[in-house]
Structure formats: C-alpha cells, structure tokens
Amino acid sequence: MYGRQSEDKFKAARERMLRYDLRGRDIADPRVLAAMADVPREEFIPPSHRSQAYSDGPLPIGNDQTISQPYIVALMTQELRVNPECEVLEVGTGSGYQTAILSKLAKKVYTIERFSDLAESAKTVLDKLGISNVEFYLGDGSNGWPAGRLPSSGCFDRIIITAGVPEISEPLVGQLADRGLIVAPVGGRTVQRLVACEKKTDKLISRTICDVRFVRLIGEHGFQQ
Ligand code: SAM
Which of 2, 99, 183, 193 has the most crowded CB, counting CB atoms within 10 A? Predict the structure, then answer.
C-alpha cells in the first residue's frame, strides 16, 4: 500500500511498539497483544504524521483531536476485558484505531463520534481493512446510543469512553448491562484519572488505574467546550 520499503519500516516499528511500549510495560493479555499486532496503525494517521505512526504518544487527526498513545489504547482495551460475545459501545470514534482493536475482540462494536469528517474517515479505513462488525453513529455520545437502535439485549456488555469526562453520565450507566464494565478518563479539563468500573445492581464500583490526559468530551453530559 505504501511501497515495500515503507511497509517494512511500519512492520519493524509495530514490532518495536509491541516489545517495548506494550509488553515492556504491563500489557500481557495475549488477545490484546494479537489485536495490536494485527491492526496497521499507519492507516489511521494523516499523511503529515504517518511516519510517526508507532511513536509512543498521541498524534493529531484533525479537528483539534488526537489518536491516543498506543500504550493507552492497549491498557484501556486490556482493562475492558472484552470477550467474543461482548457488544461494546465506544464513545469517541476519533480515527477509528481503538474501534478496529475492539472489533478484533468483540462480537460487535457500536461507536459514536461528534465530528462527521472523523466518523467518515474512520469508516473508510475500517471498510478498507475489511472490518464489518462495527456500527457508526454521528452525535453526542454522552447521551448514549440511540434507544431505537440498541442491541437486542437492550444494553452493552462493555462501554469505553475515549475522551475526558467530568463524570460517567447517567444515560451511559443506564445502557450498561449488570456486571458490565466501563473504562473511562474521568476528571478535569486537562488531567483525568483512568477508571475501570463494574456495574452491580445499578451502582458503579470504580477502581483507578492511572492519571491520563485526554481531549475533552463535549456534550450535554460532558464539558461545554
Ligand atoms: N479512540 C480514538 C482513536 O483511536 O483515534 C481517539 C479518540 S479522541 C482522544 C476523542 C474523540 O472523542 C474525538 O474524536 C472527539 O471528537 C470525540 N468526542 C468528543 N466529544 C464527543 C461526544 N460528545 N460524542 C462523541 N464523540 C465525542
């Protein structure tokens, strides 16, 4: 796709990422590592930054938004404990890279983005990669997935929020199955705590993983701007 030399460079960079940035830290789930090995991250990066596709940090994707650092994508995915029966809601499609990783692990991924050009470009890349178990929705993800289009169970087994939120919104908690898991960056406008929460009889039991810096979720139950 990018010529033989570039393909070889991306492959070597992906192997370096897996070895040092993921396994070298605390990413040990073999399914997560296999998904990170399988998805070509370079496809999700604009041409201006494509050569840095496997660098250990976030990169710009347009609209003042970012594709998250590979380690954070892997960490959130590992904490989400996705299995092949899971229906997963992702709030914040962005480039679609996290969506693609989840699609390798889940039965189906439902993903919401507020910018139409990001959603369109993510859809184009996922189509190109032959990923077909993803449904897209354009709108405010803080309100959850549209009620008329929920999975047949009426809720999601897993929810991942990939933008910083002041709190996990009521509509999202309402759409999570009992015993379901949510992973999200919760906190202020620039720094948040990455939390993993389990829903037990309508309450979220929350565990903090680490401090993170995410772009803000802008919406009715998010930040105003
Ligand atoms: N996971 C993405 C990836 O792999 O590229 C990165 C997501 S980026 C850090 C956060 C995304 O959340 C942005 O694309 C942003 O436009 C989106 N976003 C912000 N507020 C939103 C909202 N209320 N509903 C849906 N998406 C939102």
Answer: 99
Tokens coding 98: 């996290």
Any residues with CB less than 8 A from the CB of 28 and at least 6 apart, and which? Answer: 78
Report the nearest atom of ligand 1 relative to the CA of 112: 25
Mean pLDDT on 169-182: 98
212 lines ligand 1 (CB under 6 A): no
Cα–Cα dist 65/84, whole Å: 30
Provide the b/e sequence for 38-73 (b: ≥16 CB within 10 Å): ebbbbbbbeeeebeebbbeebbebeeebbbbbbbbb
CA atoms of 16 and 83, how far apart (whole Å): 26
User: Residue 95 CA: which ligand 1 atom is closest?
Assistant: 5
Q: Is the CB of 217 under 6 A from ligand 1?
A: yes
For residue 125, CA distances in Å to 175, 200, 215 come to 28, 37, 22
Q: Which atom of ligand 1 is nearest to the CA of 118?
A: 14
pLDDT digits (tens, 9 = 90+) for 26-83: 999 999 999 999 999 999 999 999 999 999 999 999 999 999 999 999 999 999 999 9
CA dist., res. 40 & res. 159, Å (int): 23
Residue 5 CA to ligand 1 centre (angstroms): 32
Residue 25 φ/ψ, nearest 5 degrees = -105, -125
Whether 76 contacts 158, CB under 8 Å: no
With H, G, I as helix, E, B as strand and everything else as coil, classify residue 81.
coil
Q: How far is the CA of 162 from the centre of ligand 1 (A)?
A: 6
